[in-house]
Amino acid sequence: MNVEKANILVADDDLTTLVLMRATLERGGYVVDTVENGIAAMRQFRAGQYDLVMLDIDMPDISGLEVCKELRHLAGQALPIVMVTGMDAWVSVDAAYRAGATDFLAKPINWALIEHRVKYLLRSYQNFLDLTAAEERNAAIIRALPDLLFEVDEHGRYVVYHPPRSDQQMSPTDSPVGKSIYEVLPKDAATICADAMREAALHGLSVGREINIRTMKGPFWYELSVSPKTKASISGKSVGQNNEQTFIILARDITARRAAEEPDSALSLL
């Protein structure tokens, strides 16, 4: 979406309002389509691609509230929908939000503020779209990882857990989220992991530490890469939900490499 040249649909049964709204929005560089009733608004919306919709609440055939509900069903919750009302403020504003409106404008309209109000809504919408796209990319990357990836807080409690690509069918009940690394890992492996977290907290990164975990399938070796989470911060410190520092830990299975490098040592573990 090009915020500066967004497509806007305006529905109002007052022709003067339509003319003024079109002129005001086009002066801001937007592409504007106008319709005179609710039925036409739904028909036009289905036929076009719109980045923002402005609806008069009180229209003769179908109210703007009903149109808003239908557009929410068609477009989801993110599309900016602005309700324009000349009715009793408290009643109409409450009804607009319950119908799914993003914002509202009261008549008589302050035409000097329309362009700025629309620009703010469109930028917020674009930020939401960008964030959603980034989250989808990150989720796809994580799903494709052949390695174990998890997040722990500064006390070693699992906050997020992503099994390796080959083991993503695990049951949610198998997830260690909420447990401590000292509950999940062997004592020596948990100690090495905690040391790596301390190193990462001091230097910003810890790589190369190895842990050994014995399972019913045999012994496995993992190489740890640990980094403080930097998504949010307070005074430069990475933080979790309760202002606690958290760490992202990537555990790469190096069992085959260890067996190749030290075959006698690897066999002794079997």
Description:
This protein is an alpha/beta fold. It folds into two domains: 137 residues, Response regulator (Rossmann fold), CATH 3.40.50; 124 residues, 2-Layer Sandwich (Beta-Lactamase), CATH 3.30.450. 42% of the residues lie in helices and 25% in strands. It is built from nine helices and twelve strands. The strands form three sheets. It has a five-stranded parallel β-sheet, sandwiched between helices. Strands 7-6-12-9-8 form a five-stranded antiparallel β-sheet, with helices on both faces. Helix 2 packs parallel to helix 3. The longest helix has 34 residues. The radius of gyration is 28 Å and the shape is elongated. The termini are far apart. The relative contact order is 0.09.
List keywords for this structure.
270 residues; alpha/beta; Rossmann fold; Beta-Lactamase; 2 domains; five-stranded parallel β-sheet; five-stranded antiparallel β-sheet; 9 helices; 42% helix; 25% strand
Describe this structure in a few short sentences.
By secondary structure, the protein is an alpha/beta fold. 42% of the residues lie in helices and 25% in strands. It folds into 2 domains: 3-139, Rossmann fold, CATH 3.40.50.2300; 145-268, 2-Layer Sandwich (Beta-Lactamase).
